[in-house]
Amino acid sequence: MEYIEWNNLNLDTSEIYRRIGMPDADSKRSLNFKPVIEQMRHKALDLVEVRCVYDYVPVNIVGSGEILLANQYPVNVLTSFFEGAHEVLIAIQTVGLRLEEESNRFFEIGEMLDGMVLDGCGTVALDEALELLRGMVVKQVTERGLQTGHNLCPGGYQIPLEAQKTLFTLLDGGKIGVTLGEAMLMSPIKSHTLVIPVGQKLAKSNLSCAITCEMCVEQQNCSHSRLKFGKAKPV
Asked: CATH: 2.40.50.140, 3.90.650.10, 3.40.109.40, 3.40.50.12780. Which one for 2-199?
């Protein structure tokens, strides 16, 4: 198991607007919120503590709709994403608890706008951390002459949420302060788990380092979808 910290987040302003439901950051209405956006963005940069634990483990397709992780843990999945893979990158990543605590404090004292914007900054931070992790993995894998697949997150249509229990068995989430509850939900909330197939010739390869909406089954229904707003992020 490997450990890494990310200290080079940007917290793109346009992404913060999108995360709070204002996709057009240049509109007159959105510009009215600019002072709060900038204030909370700088506060978020001081509060986020992005940490990650990850590992590469063997994977095998063992049946219809099932894979075996690390030669011993069966997981129900959409197996087409794992065709041609002989290993997977598994990871747990978080932006830490401090931002969540400060956002909750704002809500408790009635500063609802500050709390909402700061919470949105936390989501943007997690998105950016995911891109940094993705970029690192693509670099490591391509240097070995292999391919990466798509980012697969438990709770999506490719892998059920229950898979998080297996990932927490294989990785020490406590090392980065992340715990898994009875309902398979993580604390801090701004945390995620990740699985990326790796192989010589994947049926569904994806060498992009960018995080896009195109592969998400919820892309047309998501209130934050870049596709819905006509602002798909370049690959």
From this structure: 3.40.109.40
CA nearest neighbour of 47 among 88, 116, 109, 100 = 100
Spatial separation of the C-alpha atoms in residues 144 and 137, rounded to whole Å = 11
Of the candidates 168, 129, 133, the one whose C-alpha atom is nearest the C-alpha of residue 49 is 129
End-to-end CA distance of the chain: give it in Å, rounded.
Answer: 29
Return the sign of the alpha-carbon dihedral for residues 7, 102, 33, 214. Answer: positive
Mean pLDDT by 10 residues, the chain (235 residues): 94 92 80 92 97 98 94 94 96 97 98 97 95 95 95 88 96 97 93 96 87 54 51 48
Question: Given the DSSP bridges, would you call strands 85-94 and 147-148 parallel, antiparallel or unpaired?
Answer: unpaired
Structure tokens at 209: 């380092």
Reduced to 3 states (helix: H, G, I; strand: E, B; else coil), residue 72 is: coil
124 CB-near residues (< 8 Å, 6+ apart):
11, 12, 15, 16, 19
Q: Which residues pair with 59 in a beta bridge?
A: 69
Q: Are 177 and 51 a contacting pair, CB within 8 Å?
A: yes
Q: Kind and range of the H or E element at 106?
A: helix 98-108
Query: Under a CB-based contact definition with an 8 Å cutoff, are residues 199 and 175 in contact?
Result: no
Burial group, residue 29, by CB count within 10 angstroms (0-12, 13-18, 19+): exposed
Q: Radius of gyration over alpha carbons of the chain, in Å? A: 18
Domain boundaries, the chain: 2-199
Residue 52 corresponds to which tokens in the numbers above?
Answer: 């990650």
